[in-house]
Each structure stands twice: as C-alpha cells, then as structure tokens.
Amino acid sequence: MAIKLPFTLQVLMLGILGVLLQEIVLDIIFPAWLPVPHVLVVFLVLLGFSEHTLRGCLLVFCLGFLLDLNAGNLLGPWAGAFMVTFVLLAVLAQRIYVDSVLTLVAMVSLADFVTTTVYYGLVTFVPENFVFAGGKQSPWIMIALQALVSGLFAPVVARFCKFSTVHNKVSTGFRNQYAHEGKGLW
Length: 186
Prior knowledge:
Layout (H helix, E strand, L loop, with lengths): L6 H23 L9 H12 L3 H18 L5 H17 L7 H23 L15 H22 L4 H8 L1 H5 L8
C-alpha cells in the first residue's frame, strides 16, 4: 500500500534527497574539474513553472534554506537567490512553452546562472565567509560552467521526479491548468 504524502512534504523530502544527491553522490561521481550540478535548481525551475502561489514561494525559500544549512556559514543567501529566481521563472513561465525538454535544459541553465550570480553577489558583502570552490579560475567561468552542467543534468532529475506531484503539475502545463481561471502569482 503506497502512502500518499501532501505536496509540500513531497517537495521538502525531494529537496533533502536532492541535497544529499548533490553533495555526496554527485560529488564523488563528477571529476574535480567539473562542477556538480545544482539538483535543487531543477526543483526550483519545476516549481517556478507550476506553483505560482504563496506555497510555491515558501517551498522555494525552504529549498534555498536547505542549501544554506548545508553550506554551514551564512544563512539566507541561497534562500534569497532562490526567491529572486523563482519570481523571474514565474513571470517567464506564463510566456513560454514549458513542456519541452529543451526548454527545461535552457531554463535550468539560465536559472542556475541567475541563482548563483545572485548568491555570489549577496555573499560578497561578507567576503571572509566566501571561498569560491573553483580555486584560481574566474568565478564567472565557473558559474557559467556550473549553469551548463546543471542544465544538462536537468532531464535526469526531472525524470526522477516523474513519480512526484511536482512532475505531474509541470507535465500538465501551467497554461493548461490555469489559463481560463486567471490564477497565478501575478
């Protein structure tokens, strides 16, 4: 007998699994010169495309806060960066075709670039707390490379989410679900 969990709890549990996957499993699999994809940014994009409500905002904040807790030094920059990106995605999702794998790859790459750039901007206000994982490379090159890797990894994570409510909401499409009702964040 399968247990049906509420949507909010499903997303939070997927977030915890995503952090574990990103920080433990993928960190071992990926070579040192290649950034590990941001699994939670894929969840951020899926929520940005489907959940344009206060609940979506709170879930995205919680996902960002999970990364802040994992980072261990500052609380808030990832949560803030996730919120900024979520608002941008909520606006974009109403204007683009969201059911394409190519759109998912492009949006995750763009969202990862925006999220990491906002995070980098927020953290540089406290420079002693920030050590860029790329070492001597330019942070912009590493941010762009990580955005590309996250985008290419997005279909794998989205396929994993096929069994969750998150994927079901995205696969039906925001426009199909809310087009006639006028619902949404805006």
